[in-house]
Amino acid sequence: MDMFDDLLTAYLEKTCDREPALLQHINRETYLKETSPHMLSGHFQGRLLAFLSKLVSPTRILEVGTFTGYATLCLAEGLAQGGEIHTIDNNIELEDRVREYFGQSAYNTNIHYHIGDAAAIIPTIAGPLDLVFIDADKKNNGTYYELALEKSRRGGLILIDNVLWKGKVVSEANDSQTQQITTLNHQLANDERIEKLILPVRDGLFLLRKR
Questions:
Q1: What is the pLDDT of residues 135-186, one digit of tens each?
Q2: I want to staple 107 with a disulfide (CB 3.0 to 4.6 A). Which of 9, 76, 155, 201 is the partner?
Q3: Is this structure's pTM higher than 0.85?
């Protein structure tokens, strides 16, 4: 199921703010150098992440799944004065390039880049969290969510990416990864600790607000 075809994506990108130059560079290099460039948030979703971050004006952000750092820099745009973003990834091969990107940004001193197991690292990060973006290995999303919710302040925002999974959750595909995502979506829909809705942006973005 093609949730957003190229024609609609082009229109959405044309009618939102432009990508900053550094993000254009990261976008291009990711598509040139990475085998799974679709993991990048990209222009439209990146502007959405920046917009939501600016609405929250967070002092402390957690991101699970850095990849090439595109979404990290989008989220950092909304940081309050002196705020910080902790971003976690387990791909050590990308570390040098991602640190180079961060070093070229205005947010370099605000970014704390962690390499390792997110489930072990999240408990070591000081709270309260104002904004969380989870975009990592899908089988552990439930674990990351619970850890993040525990550290989030009341009214804090948690975002989980890829919750429509190329439309497979709607068509009820029976592969294990789709079933994992569907199960978590059902759990979140019935979780009274949060307010929630799914935005059908790209691969689906779950917006969760802690009560």
A1: 999 999 999 999 999 999 999 999 999 999 988 898 888 898 999 999 999 9
A2: 76
A3: yes
Alpha helices in 86-159 (DSSP H): 95-103, 118-121, 141-151
Tokens of 31: 């598509």
From 102, 50, 59, select the one nearest 77 (Cα to Cα): 50
Domain that residue 142 falls in: 6-210
Task: With respect to residue 1, please indicate whether it lies within any of the assigned structural domains.
Answer: no
Instruction: Give the count of domains, the chain.
Output: 1
Instruction: Please choose, from the candidates 85, 97, 96, the residue with its C-alpha nearest in 3D space to the C-alpha of residue 130.
Output: 85
- 8 Å CB contact between 106 and 128: no
> The CATH number of the domain where 191 resides is what?
3.40.50.150
Q: Which two tokens stand for residue 42?
A: 């990209």
